[in-house]
Queue: 2 jobs
Job 1
Amino acid sequence: MARYDRAITVFSPDGHLFQVEYALEAVRKGNAAVGVRGTDVVVLGVEKKSTAKLQDARSVRKIVSLDDHIALVCAGLKADARVLVNRARIECQSHRLTVEDPVTVEYITRYIAGLQQKYTQSGGVRPFGLSTLIVGFDPYTGVPSLYQTDPSGAFSAWKANATGRNSNSMREFLEKNYKETSGQETVKLAIRALLEVVESGGKNIEIAVMTKEHGLRQLEEAEIDAIVAEIEAEKAAAEAAKKAPPKET
Amino acid sequence: MKLDTSGLESAAPLFGVTSELVDGFSSAPSFELPVTTDFDGFQKEAIQMVKPARGTTTLAFIFKEGVMVAADSRASMGGYISSQSVKKIIEINPYMLGTMAGGAADCQFWHRNLGIKCRLHELANKRRISVTGASKLLANILYSYRGMGLSVGTMIAGWDETGPGLYYVDSEGGRLKGTRFSVGSGSPYAYGVLDSGYRYDLSIEEAAELARRAIYHATFRDGASGGVASVYYVGPNGWKKLSGDDVGELHYKYYPVMPSTVEQEMVEVAGA
């Protein structure tokens, strides 16, 4: 098997592209990230590894905007992410220039996925080591969407998804607890999913909310702390209700 | 950071680039250049020769119910009328029309090409392209061939999600959004009738009659326009051809021959 994993363009006898699978491993080591689609908002959340004391926290934004109505978070190699995001931003503007229309979320996802796929079929290059969660609103119909891409270049739409570290547990939590929500409820669901795998607290989580009217808004640490407190209170109340015997039989 | 200019890239060759080494798939078809001392002057002359006077009349205008598009059907080569039955309104797709003025081949080819691009856009994005987008695609292509002798003066009319749309696009690379346009050698005459009769709240029949009259008057005064006045209507459900009237018959409809009082009658004189 070792012979088939050096070059990206070589299939192994049992049909694997090992370089792509190793790229997926890199993604699994990246930060936990979650995305949830509501009826009128889309929420992105990502785990924030504690910044070093001397590091300027503002320069390590993980949730980036591609255009006024599209935002993205990725898990995996940060340098690859920067390059991919730049190409996507150029494509968003290029699309505005050639058809005088903002991109749809599906279009830009298809572009990013196409780019990731191109790097799995060329000689001398390696795949981008990241998976992305892309959210946004359709410029005309106003419908919110959430898409995910991965290093192989595959993409699909999701109601809620997670990627990066411990994404399986987050996804299980989302599958169990997902309901159509709107506004603050969607934000809470995203934070609850993240809290499954991340240490609790506003300084370990980065959350951004996108609405049709106001675009992307990063939540302040204080806001996140408040919501986390709410969630903990709700959890405690639920625990208490379970433990105490029912008053009426 | 390079902007993605693949939409603006020309498919035609740059000057003087003929290379057998270049792989046929990636390079554009190229041709040998003539041997002259003054290539620029030669080019200018060639363009002047090819640049027809756009012997035609086409018009389009937006009104309350949608877009009205009309054109004549005469093709002329200098003083020779080569055809009286040219289709100058090109059906790009069921909800978009283009008009032809200038070189017939150029217009027909590039409109078909635009139709292909619009269809591909639909398939890739699962929604129809807007009139804005379609006219921009055409304008970008024509701009990349600027100076190479294309002669296209076209109007793209259609109905999309934002309602009726009308754009004027030409081979100089210009693109204008507007509510009333007329293109061709007969356009001054058509504008006269169109501008004086235009109201936004015309009904479909009134607008069709206005368009028909404008084309008729242009064919009356302009020698390079004539044949059949075709009128199309573009509404929320797509375009529909409303009428195609021979302008000779229209003339007698608008100005019927009045029987005039006879002043002198010729009588058979019995053989003297």
Job 2
Amino acid sequence: MKWILFFGALIGLSICGREKFFGDQVFRINVRNGDESSKLSQLVNSDNLKLNFWKSPSTFSRPVDVLVPSVSLQSVRSFLKSQGLEYSVTIEDLQIYREMDSIARDFPALVSRVKIGHSFENRPMYVLKFSTAEGRRRPAIWLNAGIHSREWISQATAIWTARKIVSDYGKDPALTSILEKMDIFLLPVANPDGYVYTQTQNRLWRKTRSLNPGSACVGADPNRNWNASFAGEGASDNPCSEIYHGPHANSEVEVKSVVDFIQGHRNFKCFIDLHSYSQLLMYPYGYTIKKAPDADELDEVARRAANALASLSGTTYQVGPTCTTVYPASGSSVDWAYDNGIKYAFTFELRDTGHYGFLLPANQIIPTAEETWLGLKTIMEHVRDNLY
Amino acid sequence: MPPAVSTPPAPRPGVPRPSALLLALALALCLAVPGLQAAGPGPGPGPGSPGVPGAPPPGLLRQAARAALHFLNFRAGSPSGLRVLAAVLRGRAAVDARRTCRVDLEFTAERYDPEVADGRLGRCSARVVFRHQKPRPAVNVTCTRFMETSRSRREDFLLYKRAKRLRAPLGATSIPNSHGWIDPSLRPIWDLAFLGSSYVLWERTTQTLHYYMAQLSSVNQWKTNEDAIDFDYMVLLHEFSTQEIIPCRIHLVWYPGKPLKVKYHCQELHTAQEGSGTEEGSAVAPTQPNNF
């Protein structure tokens, strides 16, 4: 989302001038000729609008990105319209892909961007692979985000985490030792079509955008589509439902892409799925009330992770198995992972507990990502020390 | 006396209803329990984890706490005094032969508005009675004040005065916007919208369903020329556990210190709740609501 540029810059620079970025937008202004460039200079020179040019308007062969504070939005829009300047408000999924690309290019020894498949509407599914081992297929951790498109804090936390990993590798002993033994795969946008839809049409869209034959309703719940008690309790067979499980397991190409990759790899030890909201840290099962064989160990790890998370800002998480902590849910990613031999399978429901819900303010992104990182690290350290 | 778990009805295709597992879970959550379970705030004991055997899981207690607070918020009629759940302290539950579930609990509450939240908690005790899978739980709740009455009256009047001066943006709106931004000048609208929604949120809550106000999606009317604020609007409610977004139209009339008047109508979508009392979800709040 537009936040990406904001905190991307914040991480890059240790000092930032303005603390608050919520409500601001990034305008991409298309400058086509000298006449337009001089009009843009008028904008540049207007002190009172407090604009911030991400890309300098000095070379006008490319579009110019401008961070427009919320207070100036109306004025800037009117100005651009009156001057006939073409602009668009930048679309976040491209932002995330560009950011991923930039991370991979900046840290080629550590990171590569891997295409694992495509979405229903043919958008690429990109994963960042963090690995210090050339060629060898080490035990691996999968970080899944954005499977439910309206849970924007999930994608945002994922991309912040990617930056965190590259900047802390070699400096943070815990992270460094994790990466000496294991690879980390990060999928920031597991549902790209849904994500674009939340930006352009319906901010509260949850599912994929696949078409359902015979129904006017679109999409299936990608977190009810995995082959773990598929179509069991806690899912719906109605295509119009938000928890529609789809016509069959892995019917959603977004899900199938991940399944195929993980199964092809054959050495995943940990699978973590990031959602919002409710502040919960859960482990299998969702599809049954029966206790998972490793529930005691997973519970202990989850409690330590929740405590580590809370140590930063006091954010409290409830811990427990999915079915009884939140509600029964069949066909979920984490249950599938667990039943396929990936013991350390966890679901995070990130901030908040309902005040803003899905519409978490931008000023909570970094605090959320920072505290979540402590929880993630606790889990990853445990995996590192308990490889099987 | 724990009830027998009866066979749930066979699923009808295309009509989602509380699933068999959910029903079994709801009953399991409602075991008769002698005595109280003490549970500390923060990451609490998960169900099925080491703890007092047979104690009601935190899920049911939180459900009851939410219902109690929505009801309290509605009855108090004070947008500055809105409260949300902080932590469940302790509770017990009992279920009778008609599968009516009675929950007695204690919990802490904090101020709704996080920007002015000063960490002060009110302490509440409540009895909440859920009729089997039916909405409109019966609530009896008392909370200690985290703010003196005179101060909350003052804040309500300040909000009232700001509201009177406010020219609300009429028509479709998004408050908060996609990025969670609420313009500070529009905050009174948001607080009043939540106050009105409290009635709806309370009425619709069952043992297994609860709601949050996701977004204010339209301001149909904002009349401030007379004494009371007359506010007609649409909200989007987020329903757990179905994950549905439910549009509701709410019409409230508010004057500081007076009981809140609320009417509402929620769109019932493709997922009609089987066994619910009012299919349409319309209701007019009585001016002297029963507190039973």
